[in-house]
Amino acid sequence: MKTNTKIKNLLCYVVAFLLAIVANFGLISFKKNKNVVFATVVSEADSEPLTLANNNFSLNPKSTYPFEPKEYTISNSDSNVDSGVINVEDEKYAKRFSNLDRGTLYDNYVLMIDSSKKPTDLGYTTSGNISLDAGGTYLISVDVYTAEGGIANLVLSDGEEEFSTFTNIVSNNRWTSYYFFIKNDNVDSENLKLGMYLKSQGVAMFDNINTLKINENEFNRLTTEELTSTEYKVINNRKNVLQDYTSIKLKDVFSDSNGASSIKYDLAHTDGYHSNALKITNTQPSFINFESTEFAYTEVDANDPHITNVVKSEYLTLEQNGVYNITVNAKAEDLNGKATIGLVQIVDEDETAVEKTLTISASTTSKDSITNGFKQYSFYVTTSPEESASFKLVASLGSDSEKATGSLYISSVEISRITTSAYSAASAGAEVEKIDFSTDYKLTGSSTALDNGKFDIISANDQNKQYPASANGWSVETGEHTQHYGIVNTSSTEFAKLSGFKNLTNPMDTRNGGTKINNNILMMHNTQADVLSYKSTSKNLSAKSIHKFETSINTQNSPVTLSLVATVEGKEIVLSSKTVDTNGDWAQVEMYIKAGYAALDVSLKIILDSSSWAYAYVDNARFDYYSQPTEEQFNAISATDSNLVSKVDLTNILLTKDNNDFATPMLFESTGDNVTFGVVDVEYGPYKEIETFTAIGESHVIGISAMNDSYSKVNSILGYKLAKNSYYKVSVSVYTQYLQIINGNGTSFGAGIKLSSFDETFTNIQSNNTWTTYNFYVCPDNDTTTYLELLLGSEDCKVSGDAFFGKISFTEINEDTFNKATANEYSKILKTTAVATPEETPVETPTETTNFKDINWWYVISGSMFTLAIIITIVGVMVRRIKWKKPVKKTKNSYDRNRTVSKQVYTRKATTVREEKLRELNKDLETLHAERIKYEEEYKQDLTKLREMKIKRANPADIKKLEKEMRKSQKMSSSIGVNINAIEAEIKYVNTDAYFNSLMKKLANQPSQNSQQEE
């Protein structure tokens, strides 16, 4: 027992020891590497380290020095220069340089560049980027050591140009830390690389590159302390700042608009960061209002099409289609009353349209060396895509209703272009106000009721904007050749940026002659023969509603096609098209559309399909811009009034894409082989001489013509929406001719009509060369969408001939009309919606899958063996409990040889009789088929001849004679078909076991005759 206890205790010690090792290993592995010296500059709580690979040059150390540093790139390589990573404890370097060992605070590896023979310009640059977020504040430090006359440089670069540098660094044989304090631009992020160079003869060493993101308060604290100028650089990266008043006399920015003698204002000099400030003081209770008078613009990026290089402006002007941040650093002291900073919009120099004010809180930390009590007050502004906005900045002590005393300090004013995402992220509050002038010009705005119809919506997220700019709200499809497309501006300065475009002329602008900056239009340019198209977002047209699309077009060297297109179940349908050629002038194109009985979404599509180079300009694409057209206005419009006006009536479902016979209808599609399908014009086509076509009062009908055996179905593409418990009447007139059964049992022969959501169908329609109208009276028990189906023949009975469907109408009726309807061969009452086949319940797929690598096979094997043992045990028990029965042997019947011989004789005789019968039937069937083929060929030849006669307008008597012959052939063919069906049915029966058994029984009942025949 004692031995076992000792063993257990020993095992416990071992396990505890192993756990301690593992725990210690974990602590070592995850312990944060803290730079003690760097932490004295910035606290860990106020910083976040950035990732920079091999920042202390200790990655993949080698025993031979120097070795190339991983994650760095050498530049200006020189064989006479000894460069790379060294170990400061190596005897070779420890003896050569003094003050090289920095104790236990650092690792032993540093980057060295040694050029003792001649001057050099060799350096190393980080391979990875130092990423700076927009608006972030950062601290980057590098330790530098120079000896033997060495001069070092540090360079921060964005890959194209230098961001900031330390030059001519001489540390006099001691390690010195150099710091970059960076306040990044609030619009653009930055990706920087750090370069470390020896710019002379001698030695330079670098180590301990630290990159930190610090909070703004820490940034302000560090940059306001007295820092050695050669060791610190403060970089305020503000590439997108348009105006900055930090360094000018603010008393020249504001003027006294009140004139009260008790007011004093001067340039105050305070301690710390905000040392240059305008001080406004009320010594007695009063109201004073200061307004901005003149603002000096700095030079801005000439490649930005949305900013004008203005030297001076009476007011603060923000250009169109921009997002801005206006910041004012201010504070109030000894305040009794209210102090405000305001932004007032100026309209026509007099009218005040928008005024936003922020109340300045009284300072409680006026002696704070970091902020001196100042706070940043921000106005976020989004301008409209069409118009710039002008403002005055207003500083006030007191108001008309409340006088005030005290002092208001303003230290700086700054205007920056920012992104839309930065605008959205800002929240209005005590120190932030937001102004949005783009509300009326959003993609879903009411200015044109068509998304970006004025082509003014341009993203403000990218300062280096694409030009031509992308047209938000429109989808573009391009060809295979070089094409130029997008939003351009017709002002002379902006249009001039489109240099190098072949034969380009400025189309100016239809709104104001192209004299302003905001004249944006859409340009489409094919450099050679190609197709380029733009499509708008869709507008929903409710059933039977009327609408108007209009667009300004300017074409050069090629016409454009304007189309109204609908997308139904992924298929694009062209509802109406208009070809326009303005030959360099602007023209307004109007397209009216009346929706049918089904709602649908419609888009405007502009297509430039040119045979060579061509331009097209588009502007003012609008939908129901002034008002929605009325029924009277729609009916009064004639498509022939102007080649710039068109209309389409979708309630006429027999619309076609052309005027040919069997023209393709836009709202129907067909399935079936060997069929001619389409809309027939019975006034001008080959069917004009058939007088009965005019009986329905329409000139266009849908026709299905089958020369050969066919089953055809034509269905409407757009569905009809039926409301629950509402009443409808769907009418279709049908005309058939030359119908002929080709095969089948003859149970379904002719044309048919069906509504897809219901079971009832008109079938086997044979109108005998007259128009017959069929009606569905519908009252659905559920909201549903139904599609009209027009049929010729059926799956079981394919036919040839012609079927025409006309005077198709869909109307709402009242309950009384519905109740009076009578079901008969021409009318059907539909009350119950067809029940859809229920979908099968999908088999649930396990959300987790087993990874074989993760399986503990010991448990699996042992578990499987345990399960197998249980199964074997159960089976064994069951085997023992089952009472097995021995099979009972069947008693054999006595063998009757005479009976067997007789059966063989009957079978042989029955087989012979059946074979003879089948030969006779097949011979008759072959004869009938030959006769039927003869009549079918005669019918087809006569049908072709008849159509030729109609086209040539032959003598009507000859046509009637030929039609009589065709009916005779058709009748004979049908009669033969009935006989063929009967013989085929008999052949099928003769081949059955029932027929053979009956024949055997009949032979068995004639023994004497059978015996004689056998002898």
Summarize the structure.
The protein is α+β, with helices and mostly antiparallel strands and 1015 residues long.
Fold and architecture overview:
The chain has about 1000 residues and is α+β, with helices and mostly antiparallel strands. It is built from 13 helices and 53 strands. Strands 1, 3, 4, 7, 10, 12 and 13 form a seven-stranded mixed beta sheet that branches. The radius of gyration is 47 Å and the shape is elongated. It starts with a helix and ends with a helix.
Fold topology:
Layout: H1 2-30, H2 36-39, E1 47-49, E2 72-75, E3 82-87, H3 91-96, E4 109-115, E5 123-126, E6 130-132, E7 137-147, E8 152-157, E9 162-169, E10 176-183, E11 190-198, E12 202-214, H4 216-224, E13 232-236, E14 241-244, E15 254-256, E16 263-269, E17 276-286, E18 288-292, E19 295-296, E20 312-313, E21 316-318, E22 323-336, E23 339-347, E24 351-360, E25 375-382, E26 389-397, E27 404-417, H5 420-425, E28 432-436, E29 474-477, E30 483-489, H6 492-495, E31 520-526, E32 530-536, E33 539-541, E34 546-556, E35 560-568, E36 571-580, E37 586-594, E38 600-610, E39 614-623, H7 631-636, E40 645-649, E41 668-671, E42 675-681, E43 700-710, E44 712-716, E45 720-722, E46 728-741, E47 751-755, E48 761-765, E49 772-778, E50 784-786, E51 788-792, E52 799-812, H8 815-820, E53 827-830, H9 857-881, H10 897-951, H11 956-990, H12 993-1004, H13 1007-1014
Parallel strand pairs: 10-13, 25-28, 37-40, 49-53
Antiparallel strand pairs: 1-12, 2-5, 3-4, 4-12, 5-11, 6-11, 7-10, 7-12, 8-9, 8-11, 14-27, 15-18, 16-17, 17-27, 18-26, 19-20, 21-26, 22-25, 22-27, 23-24, 23-26, 29-32, 30-31, 31-39, 32-38, 33-38, 34-37, 34-39, 35-36, 35-38, 41-44, 42-43, 43-52, 44-51, 45-50, 46-49, 46-52, 47-48, 47-51
Helix pairs in contact: 10-11, 10-12
